[in-house]
Amino acid sequence: MRADAFLLHPARRLLAGLVVLVLAGCAQLVPQTMGLRTDWPAGVPRQVELAQVPFFPQNDYQCGPAALASVLNYSGALVSPEALVNEVWLPSRKGSLQLEMLAAPRRHGRVSYRLEPRYADLLREVAAGNPVLVLQDVGLMTPFLAQWHYAVVNGFDYETGTVYLRSGLQVRQQMSFTAFERSWIPGNYWAMVVQPPGKVAATATEERWLEALLGLARGGDVDAIVKGYAAALQRWPDSLPAAIGLANSLHARGSLAEAAGVLRDALERNPQSVIVLNNLAQTLSDLGRHAEALALIDRVNDPQSPFAAEVRSTRAMIRERMK
Predict the structure, then answer these.
(1) Which CATH number applies to 222-322?
(2) Do residues 77 and 105 make contact, with C-beta atoms less than 8 angstroms apart?
(3) Per-residue pLDDT reduced to its tens digit, 178-189
């Protein structure tokens, strides 16, 4: 090849420069889409569509209840958009805030989990069979007037660069990866999944999933929270907070023997845990096994522990019961 083969005509050099600038501009506008071209998430198939996700046409300004009903029904909680209006719809704002969207599923025995602001996490959830509820700005043609909208992502096709959504009056809206990201960016990539308590979100971390379970616990459904902590402990077997949460929930339900079994397993993994020793001693005493409970609580010899007051109280209770 001639050395001067790489020399471009001035017009061609200008065109090449424009192409580089356009590509750079695209990367800035849709950085995560550009990243997916060279770094597709490991283990995620190139094409997924969850055709069984229900569709509810959205009335004016009430996309929140409709989108939420879609993911709730898919999770097994049968509820209509109309029933959700009073839970999430704010007439003064003609819409629904994210806090209400996260809180409402807990009242129906479901776990709300907000995703990290990553395109890859959205794709992983859909690939795992979990439709993703997203917040979009669909008024991008009027840059100074946001038009917020909730929709449900239920599929994607890498080869055609398409994202599939249940949105508005469209049962199968198709958006390009780039157009979807542009609409998703203004809300800081806000997205959530709604899960049955026994199914941990695919992208969940231990800490953030346990935080989501605390939200579920405020709903008061003890059976749901037991399932939630049991699933968390199965996902993260060494998780002390999950074990304690499960044992406490079983105790609250009256399943004392099961709670004691969970705490014994936790004690094997964490033999120096003051809170496990304390809770197991109290549970054994509640089962009438006071001598065993006292021997266990007497293993705690740490007056500087943040749980020292609880330990003293538990020891006094056991001794009183033994009189």
Answers:
(1) 1.25.40.10
(2) yes
(3) 999 999 999 999
Per-residue confidence at 278, pLDDT binned at 50, 70, 90? very high
Q: Are 287 and 260 in contact (CB under 8 A)?
A: yes
Instruction: Please tell me the predicted confidence (pLDDT) of residue 139.
Output: 83
Length of the chain equals 323
The CA distance from 274 to 238, in Å, is 16
**Amino acid present at 194:** V
What is the rounded average pLDDT of the residues 212-223? Answer: 88
Give one DSSP letter per residue of 252-274, joined into a string.
HHT-HHHHHHHHHHHHHH-TT-H
pLDDT of residue 10: 44
CATH code of 47-195, in short, is 3.90.70.10
SS3 69: helix
Residues facing 95 on adjacent strands: 90
Domain residue spans of the chain? 47-195, 222-322
The Cα 311–Cα 319 span in angstroms is 12
What does the pLDDT look like over 227-241, one tens digit per residue?
999 999 999 999 999
Q: Among 138, 115, 126, which residue's Cα sits nearest to residue 191?
A: 115
| Whether the Cβ atoms of residue 205 and residue 116 lie closer than 8 Å to each other | no
Domain pair 47-195 / 222-322, same fold: no
Backbone angles phi, psi at 75, to 5 degrees: -80, -5
β partners of residue 210: none
